[in-house]
Amino acid sequence: MKISEIMTTAVCSITSDKSVSHAAEQMNEYSTNSLVVVDYGELTGIVTSRHVASAHPNRIVADAMDVSPNRISPEQNIWYAHSLLLESDKDLLIVMDHQEEVLGIVTREAIQIKLAEYLDPLTGLYRAPYIHYIGEKMLAENKPFHLLFIDVNDFGQINKQFGHPFGDDVIRSFSAVLSSLVVEQGDHLCRYAGDEFILITSGPESHVQQCIETIVSPTEIYHVTVSAAVGYMNGYREPNFFARPLRELIANASLLSTEAKKKSLFRC
Fold first, then answer.
1. pLDDT band with cut points at 50, 70 and 90 for residue 267
2. Which residues does the UniProt record annotate as the domain GGDEF (predicted)?
3. Residue 97 and residue 236: Cα distance in Å, rounded?
4. Please, which residues bridge with residue 146 across strands?
């Protein structure tokens, strides 16, 4: 999903020498929460309703505006936009082309609404497109990572024996166990498909080993013992890690999890 597909193209502008009260009037007139500040044909900042509310009406826009708004290309995807907003703690991005022309604005709210479509309703985790974005981005930036392909053991048998609603409860509870392993920085978890999950982490190997030990250890969920197999690709040690596309790395990790199922425990 590209930014161009969710951005707002109706952009209103103002010059930095106008008063804050005038900016507020313009926002009311055009029913917008932001104005792009343009002086002599060049973007110099952005003023939002939050800036207006916190500044004296008699001050000028130059005193209240954000002079370093985040910019983004319309070709970028929403995952990148989301990470930019998280890093900057801002509410919107200005969409500009290569000629530095303002094409539109994309807000935090618009991005969050779109990202919600990628959330798995059962577990609340992001689905496969999220992990594809994270993995491909890190490969492109030559940032090594650990990839854990997690596959619940005998899930088909659990469904047959206890029914699909119970199977859903197992997936939900097991995903909570996985989420408890995720640290705030460097860990990325998704429900990949059915009873399969993927964890990408740039954390230390001690963290990875702790995760694997927890995941493969049998867990009691509603009086049923549940365990999982893990296929592990170590991007810090794997030969030709960066020469391989993410799909191939995931496929290899999946095969390793299948081998782990046969052995009941896998360590790399």
1. very low
2. 143-268
3. 36
4. 201, 234
* CA within 13 Å, CB half, 77: 10
- How is residue 85 written in tokens? 């907003």
List pLDDT tens digits, range 187-245: 999 999 999 999 999 999 999 999 999 999 998 888 889 999 999 999 999 989 999 99
| 9 Cβ contact partners less than 8 Å away, ≥ 6 residues apart | 103, 104
Task: Please state, in angstroms and rounded to a whole number, the distance separating the CA atoms of residues 262 and 264.
Answer: 5
Q: How many CA atoms lie within 13 A of 177 on its CB side?
A: 24
SS (H, E, C) the chain: CEHHHCCECCCCEECCCCEHHHHHHHHHHHCCCEEEEEECCEEEEEEEHHHHHHCCCCCEHHHHCECCCCEECCCCEHHHHHHHHHHHCCCEEEEECCCCCEEEEEEHHHHHHHHHCCECCCCCCECHHHHHHHHHHHHHCCCCCEEEEEEECCHHHHHHHHCHHHHHHHHHHHHHHHHHHCCCCCEEEEEEECCEEEEEECCCHHHHHHHHHHHHCCEEECCEEECEEEEEEECCCCCCHHHCCHHHHHHHHHHHHHHHHHHCCCCC
Write out pLDDT tens, residues 104-121: 999 999 999 999 999 999
Q: Length of the chain, please?
A: 268
**In 234-262, which positions are buried (b, 16+ CB within 10 angstroms) versus exposed (e)?**
ebeebeebeeeebeebbebbeebbeebbe
**Could you tell me the pLDDT band of residue 19, with boundaries at 50, 70 and 90?**
very high
This prediction's pTM? 0.78
Q: Which residue has the tokens 């810090």?
A: 236
Q: Both tokens of residue 50?
A: 């939050």
